[in-house]
Design goal:
The complex is a heterodimer of chains A (289) and B (165). Chain A has 289 residues and is of the alpha+beta class. Chain A is 32% helix and 28% strand. Classes of the chains: A alpha+beta (289), B mainly alpha (165).
Chain lengths: 289, 165
């Protein structure tokens, strides 16, 4: 290896400093466009990653015996029968709910179109929690859409690309939504605020709930569950967020109480999720010309 | 650059694999080491900057943050490569691997992701990342260097770059 000329390294340092300085002085829009370009350049790899995981699952499942598959099919048929029953009951309840709401003149609830998406990439660490879903602008996904699965709330869409979208998970410190405490019989607590919390390495997903009334006591005896509120319009009411890990403790000013939340552990092992895309409401208040 | 793209893809797979354990792998360690120890100065810096931008585009980091921190580290390691004996490459690779989690920590602190509570609660996690970085550098760096050389030869860009480490 040939030795460098004296001073070459210092020139390199100076040049690098200038390049980095210029980079951060660039307008935000230019950096955003550059990021989008770099992201879309590698987006096919995200989708390939998703396909690779599907292939792995496929090969894993082909190793099952016919007896295993028959048993799984039988169990699934039982679950389906139960779900069909619940679905028909839910339809009846929804009709009844709509009839009562109409009778009382209540405003209509927000409707969502459900877009099911495979998880293409997961990026979960101590400082941020995010996943990439294999659905994007071409499927009508928009930034701000809520993301859920069978276990409850998953997160919210932050960036939308052509065929993929980035989702900020429930445990990300920037995630913040209005919530309700389930099993609060007198509805005394009202709306509380849930925020994600830093996840420690090898630790469980966690969050934090604040703005609980200071004298709140758990009178149910069992663990309290935190569920979504409809405020904000991103989620349906009553979706699971997590369980209050401790009884609420008063804050230093004594006005409110706060508690840690244990989020379900399968959140970091997510394979599929549903994006809730709001359906535009008919503009009933537009006046005719 | 192509080797860097392959690395980013493999790194994403690795990141996805460890996601259930909430462990942040210092995935910029091998490209940093290869760029500083195996490539010429200017080519190494440009390649590293592009790989860092590719990496940032697919993570929650501010776009350009990894390049901002990796480039001075690259220059430091390159300076060390010029001054130290030829057989100290492994030591420099391990230093690079240990510096990468520190780099992540610095970025997280700048963008306000590190709270005092998180720091004290998670010293074990931080130590785990440094160990993971060293292990990753030990396993992945020679492969990434080999991949870089193979691609340079395949595209006829030049002979195998300066052999070091």
């Amino acid at each position: 290896m040939s030795p460098e000329r004296p001073g070459a390294l210092w020139r390199h340092f100076a040049l690098m400093g200038v390049a980095v300085g210029l980079w951060w002085l660039l307008p935000g829009a230019v950096r955003r466009v550059a990021r989008e370009g770099f992201y879309e350049f590698q987006a096919p790899f995200f989708l390939a990653e998703s396909r690779l995981k599907d292939l792995r699952q496929y090969w894993l499942k082909t190793s099952h015996t016919n007896d295993d598959l028959i048993a799984a099919g039988r169990d699934l048929a039982r679950v389906n029968a139960d779900l069909y029953l619940r679905l028909s009951r839910a339809d009846g309840l929804a009709r009844e709910n709509r009839r009562l709401a109409d009778a009382l003149g209540l405003p209509s609830r927000r409707e969502f179109r459900q877009v099911v998406a495979r998880v293409a990439d997961r990026d979960v660490g101590r400082w941020w929690s995010r996943v990439v879903l294999a659905r994007g602008a071409r499927d009508g996904v928009k930034a701000g859409c809520g993301v859920v699965n069978g276990g409850g709330i998953v997160g919210v869409v932050t960036e939308v690309h052509r065929d993929t979208c980035e989702v900020r998970l429930l445990t990300d410190p920037d995630f913040r939504i209005a919530a309700n405490i389930d099993g609060d019989p007198s509805d005394r607590v009202g709306v509380v605020i849930y925020t994600g919390a830093t996840t420690t390495a090898f630790g469980e997903p966690r969050g934090r709930v604040t703005n609980i009334v200071a004298d709140f006591k758990n009178e149910t005896g069992g663990p309290l569950r935190l569920v979504s509120s409809e405020l904000g319009g991103k989620f349906l009411f009553g979706l699971n967020i997590g369980i209050l890990e401790t009884d609420p403790k008063p804050t230093s000013d004594g006005l409110f109480a706060e508690a840690d939340i244990r989020v379900r552990p399968d959140l970091f092992d997510l394979q599929e999720a549903t994006i809730l895309v709001p359906v535009p409401e008919p503009d009933t208040f537009r006046e005719s010309p | 650059m192509l080797a860097g793209l392959c690395w980013v893809f493999l790194a994403r797979l690795a990141g996805d694999f460890v996601a259930p354990y909430a462990l942040t792998l210092p995935l910029m360690a091998p490209p940093l080491t290869v760029a500083a120890l195996r490539l010429p100065r200017r080519a190494g810096a440009i390649t590293l900057a592009l790989v860092a931008l590719l990496y940032d585009a697919g993570t929650g980091l501010p776009f350009g943050a990894s390049a901002t921190v990796a480039l001075p580290l690259h220059a430091l390691l390159y300076a060390a490569r010029q001054r130290l004996a030829a057989d100290s490459g492994l030591l420099l690779a391990l230093v690079a691997a240990a510096l990468t989690p520190v780099m992540h920590f610095g970025v997280a602190a700048v963008i306000g992701r590190v709270s005092g509570r998180g720091m004290t609660d998670d010293l074990f996690g931080f130590a785990s990342e440094i160990v993971a970085g060293c292990v990753l550098a030990g396993i992945a760096t020679p492969w990434l260097a080999g991949l870089t050389n193979a691609m340079l030869r395949a595209f006829g860009i030049g002979r195998e770059t300066e052999v070091y480490g």
